[in-house]
């Protein structure tokens, strides 16, 4: 039976809710310390998991070595003195105890183990390299770490404590559903799940995960909509006699190529910028155009995927098929990478998959 709920992730900016500058700096230093320990713990966990799984390939070890990865209390030939998940948790817990909340380490261990298990077959065949966690990794925490989430009228913000650190949200001109989702959490209508904290350019972002009920629409599973991610149109969809071309090559690429041209001119001009304060100041305008292009593409793909799902709902199509995607990718590769680089097939497919699941539409990729 299909699940009746779906998990949504929203990026919400946070500010440390402390009265003095010294307290805010201390809280930010604490967060950066937790991030550093999480990054180091993540690399330790994935390394130990890989060694455990590949121990049978260490044929050069002396005879008599036990290879069975089970608790020795459960099997005579077991080589572990605790469960596999507890092994890696104890490794990082013993090393970083007191430097980072154990709840963060437990969630790191759980997430990495799930991801490792998913990709284990590729690791064994040598088709995939191990994950390598960077220093700016978002660190996870469970709902047990959040206390007193509520809306404070005097501060015009949602406030809570993450372990010992007080926070308040900064939603700005919120045109999305972030405020509504937080209000529903406070009212107890939806559930808040394990989330993450991301630190970027001395700003704090909460990657909040909400578990909400799927949308209810009068869909018919036997009604099928066929969509194609075309080179002339971002999406072409038809269901029965109804057909819709979503976007166009000129409409999508015109603005993006204009941004890229402006970016190129700015890059060429940086050589003549006034010196001082190093590379960061010289490339500030370049980074602004990078961010502008990223935001533009994300917005257009969101609009296109939304129009596709709305079309399916209007036609009562309970099944959506994306057809001939491998052929489209091969054609894109032959065009010297121009279309493939600018079309963002994978990101568009990801947005379609998420919106289809939320609307209760079965997605099939042909």
The quaternary structure here is single chain
Low-pLDDT windows of residues: 336-340
Q: What structural class do helix, strand and pairing data support?
A: alpha+beta
Order of helices and strands: EHEEHHHEEEEHEEEEEHHHEHHHE
N/C terminus separation: 23 Å
Largest sheet: number of strands, sense, barrel closure: 7 strands, antiparallel
Helix coverage percent of residues?
A: 40-55%
At the fold tier of CATH, the topology name of the largest domain is: Nucleotidyltransferase, domain 5
Cα radius of gyration in angstroms: 25 Å
CATH architecture group name of the largest domain: 2-Layer Sandwich
- By DSSP, the count of extended strands is 14
pLDDT averaged over residues: 81
How many structural domains?
Answer: 3
The number of helices is 11
What does this 3D model show about the protein?
With 366 residues, this protein is α+β, with helices and mostly antiparallel strands. The chain folds into 3 domains: 5-19 and 139-213, no CATH class; 31-125, no CATH class; 220-268 and 283-365, Nucleotidyltransferase, domain 5. The chain has 11 helices and 14 strands. The protein has helices at residues 21-54, 84-96, 102-118, 120-125, 178-187, 249-269, 278-282, 284-314, 325-334, 338-343, 345-359, and strands at residues 5-16, 68-71, 78-80, 139-141, 146-152, 157-162, 165-170, 191-200, 203-213, 220-228, 235-239, 242-246, 317-322, 362-365. Strand 8 (191-200) and strand 9 form a beta hairpin. The radius of gyration is 25 Å and the shape is globular. Residues 336-340 have low confidence and may be disordered.
